[in-house]
Amino acid sequence: KKEKAKIKIEFIKITKAYEYDSAPAFSPDGAKIAYVSYQDDVQNIWIIDSEGQEEPKRITNTATLDNRPTWSPDGKSIIFSSAKLNDSAEPKLCIVDSNGTNLRQLGKGVQGYNPSCSPVNGQIVFVSQNNLWIMKGIDDEQPKYVTTRGYHDYPCWMDNAKKVLFFSDNDLHLINIDKEDRDRKSTRLNSSHIPLSRMPSSA
Fold first, then answer.
1. What is the pLDDT of residues 133-159, one digit of tens each?
2. How much is the pTM?
3. What is the structure's pLDDT at 114?
4. Does residue 147 contact residue 155 with C-beta atoms inside 8 Å?
5. DSSP class of residue 111?
6. Is the pLDDT of residue 18 over 80?
7. E runs forming strands in the chain
8. What is the pLDDT of residue 188?
9. Cα separation, 201 vs 63, whole angstroms
10. Which candidate, 188, 145, 143, places its Cα nearest to that of 165?
11. CB neighbours of residue 173 within 10 Å
């Protein structure tokens, strides 16, 4: 019998966490990584080059718990959730320019978390009160619900931003965003149902 070739896996350390780093998201051109870093009881957004050769740059510097960065399609802005320290209220969705300027809230103080921005058209799907909501873009002040019942989380775009993959009831589900509200139905999936060519984008 021929021995199977051994696959060598090499781990490259990109960041050097002071406490811990998490939630990485590649920029649209793949050159940068936005991530969250927890330091001194706050969690802010940072950016580093994708090879980890340069010094990381702090993008937000507030006494908050920022989380789940996602890039705008043009790579000029980063959308994320931000919660006040020791506050049980839902986080608010915020946006900041990738150079750390122009930090502001999305819409009229839209509340939610785990945002995912479509790399195709800039629509933003996010979670609020355990359900999925969608904004047409960063200026949309009236998000619309995608789901209305149950517990849904961790949405991400796939199939050229026509569908959203998300977690629900201990399984993965897929919903067609292109359809009208009344025609949307989610489909329960497992990994064998998702062709590799249509796996979700990290954006």
1. 999 999 898 999 898 888 999 999 998
2. 0.84
3. 97
4. no
5. B
6. no
7. 20-26, 32-39, 42-49, 57-58, 64-71, 77-84, 92-97, 104-105, 113-117, 124-128, 131-135, 144-145, 152-158, 163-168, 171-176, 187-189
8. 60
9. 30
10. 188
11. 20
